[in-house]
Amino acid sequence: MEGALVANWSAEAVNGSDAPPEAEGNRTAGPPQRNEALARVEVAVLCLILFLALSGNACVLLALRTTRHKHSRLFFFMKHLSIADLVVAVFQVLPQLLWDITFRFYGPDLLCRLVKYLQVVGMFASTYLLLLMSLDRCLAICQPLRALRRRADRLAVLATWLGCLVASAPQVHIFSLREVADGVFDCWAVFIQPWGPKAYITWITLAVYIVPVIVLAACYGLISFKIWQNLRLKTAAAAAAAAEGPEGAALARVSSVKLISKAKIRTVKMTFIIVLAFIVCWTPFFFVQMWSVWDANAPKEASAFIIAMLLASLNSCCNPWIYMLFTGHLFHELVQRFLCCSSGYLKGNRPGETSVSKKSNSSTFVLSCHSSSQRSCSQPSTV
Fold first, then answer.
1. What parts of the sequence cross the membrane (predicted)?
2. Same domain (yes/no): 333, 213
3. Is the same domain home to 211 and 335?
């Protein structure tokens, strides 16, 4: 389950199976119990998160496919980040939901290892693709000429996906199907050394949260400094233009081409909000993870772990809303194209009309659409 990416947490009672049995004598006499009320709330929230994540990111991918600016660098990274969020929804949120419904893992050992592996793949991918997008925005602001290499972007994204697949490999060896009580099996983590949980959870926290957040902070520190310099240049140019009259104003307009455009600043704002949402959603999760293994007196109540896990899951469905806030024209074009094609289809399928009249109706409707939608209806895009 997602809440048990590197620990065996669920909506169980405190006296449940918080730790796997290491010997025959440690097994409980009966199956561990769980808090059913908390489990029902968790199932309801996960259903909502799964629906929002699947529908939102699917709409983003469809909008990016149909837009005329599909080759934009920012849209390229948005596409892969949406794919990573879909991986989170399908391989983290969905297994978590099914697991909460059944309470125990009902599947072979191979499926147990595969689910645990794919859960961490999605977590790594969403983090490092966001980091890659932020690095791209940093280069676009600080070194705009260097940021024009499209082939390097593709190689960086490919290397990121491959790196996430490799970094998630330990999950396959740590988790397996184990007997947690007499006749009760579950997908459980097994560490050979007693310090294993501390080492592994610390490594996951460093790799997925602490190091990326430090790099992201450095990126946006540089971006903020560059934008501050840009504002100083604009202020100086405006003052020089006012002092030199009309000729100075013309010179200021020419030199402003070298300054940072408002469009770039807007994309930086969008990426910053995505990063902020990532930090807000994932901080409680990793805090609880580290607290549980490093503090022997940490609370064992399941509610704290469940809330932290649900907040982390929320990150996969909030990104599409951020995209909509800053690139609303994408979704406007998608809706216009859908309405355009739907109306054309309905007009063209009226009973009693000939094929010639169908073409005429469709063409007439296309001409009445918005200019951006007109192109999308008359010329379907291909990738």
1. 43-64, 76-94, 114-135, 155-175, 200-223, 270-292, 304-326
2. no
3. no
Shared domain check, 163 and 102: yes
pTM: 0.74
By residue range, what is the domain housing residue 353?
329-383
Identify any residues that bridge with 188 across adjacent strands, giving them in sequence order: 176
Nearest to 208 by CA among 263, 134, 282, 280: 282
* pLDDT value for 267: 80
161: in domain: yes
Query: By three-state DSSP, how is residue 344 classified?
Result: helix
State which of 307, 326, 345 marks the end of a domain: 326
What amino acid occupies position 41? V
Q: Is the pLDDT assigned to residue 24 strictly greater than 50?
A: no
Q: What are the pLDDT digits (tens) for 231-289? A: 777 777 667 666 665 555 554 444 444 456 677 778 888 888 999 999 999 999 999 88
- The 8-class DSSP code of residue 296 comes to T
Give the chain's domain count.
Answer: 2
- Of 167, 52, 25, 46, give the one whose Cα is nearest residue 96: 46
Residue 324 exposure: Cα atoms within 13 Å on the Cβ side = 15
Residue 11: DSSP 8-state = S
- Is 113 in the same domain as 169? yes
